[in-house]
């Protein structure tokens, strides 16, 4: 499944992203900017059990290596350290995390109608981000 997700993707549109960021504790001014800014996502396989994922949201770039099926720590959307893991199931890359503040964060990435759809749920508030292949 990693093969379908790999490549460079440009943000096309969002659904409910403002509410998601608000639930994560982001202030109104930052949310307004984040929702309006474009973004990109680059996924590169690093062998059988690891992906390199680069996300660009406006001026902020985050690049990390993600082990598949192995628990790891990363910065959560609320700024706290989150702990969890990604796996591939039912054609999706699925991650479930618990932040240092005890909040649940679920992320899935899948291909739908030629778009990479990233669904994120932060403690009950869900959003979707749709990316087109570059």
TrEMBL record:
Leader sequence residues: none
CDD domains: FABP (cd00742)
UniProt-listed Pfam families: Lipocalin
InterPro entries referenced in this protein's UniProt entry, alphabetically: Calycin (IPR012674), Fatty_acid-bd (IPR000463), ILBP (IPR031259), Lipocln_cytosolic_FA-bd_dom (IPR000566)
SUPFAM superfamilies (alphabetical): Lipocalins (SSF50814)
Superkingdom as given in the UniProt entry: Eukaryota
Residues of the Lipocalin/cytosolic fatty-acid binding domain: 6-133
Similarity comment text for this entry: Belongs to the calycin superfamily. Fatty-acid binding protein (FABP) family.
Protein name: Lipocalin/cytosolic fatty-acid binding domain-containing protein
Species this chain originates from: Clavelina lepadiformis (Light-bulb sea squirt)
């Amino acid at each position: 499944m990693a093969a379908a997700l790999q490549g460079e993707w440009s943000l096309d549109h969002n659904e409910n992203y403002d509410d998601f960021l608000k639930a994560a504790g982001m202030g109104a001014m930052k949310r307004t900017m984040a929702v309006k800014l474009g973004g990109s996502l680059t996924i590169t396989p690093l062998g059988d059990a690891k992906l390199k994922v680069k996300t660009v949201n406006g001026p902020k770039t985050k690049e990390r290596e993600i082990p598949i099926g192995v628990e790891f720590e990363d910065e959560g959307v609320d700024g706290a350290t989150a702990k969890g893991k990604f796996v591939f199931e039912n054609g999706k890359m699925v991650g479930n995390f618990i932040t240092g503040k005890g909040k649940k964060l679920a992320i899935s990435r899948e291909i739908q109608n030629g778009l990479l759809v990233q669904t994120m749920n932060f403690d009950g508030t869900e959003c979707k981000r749709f990316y087109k292949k570059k």
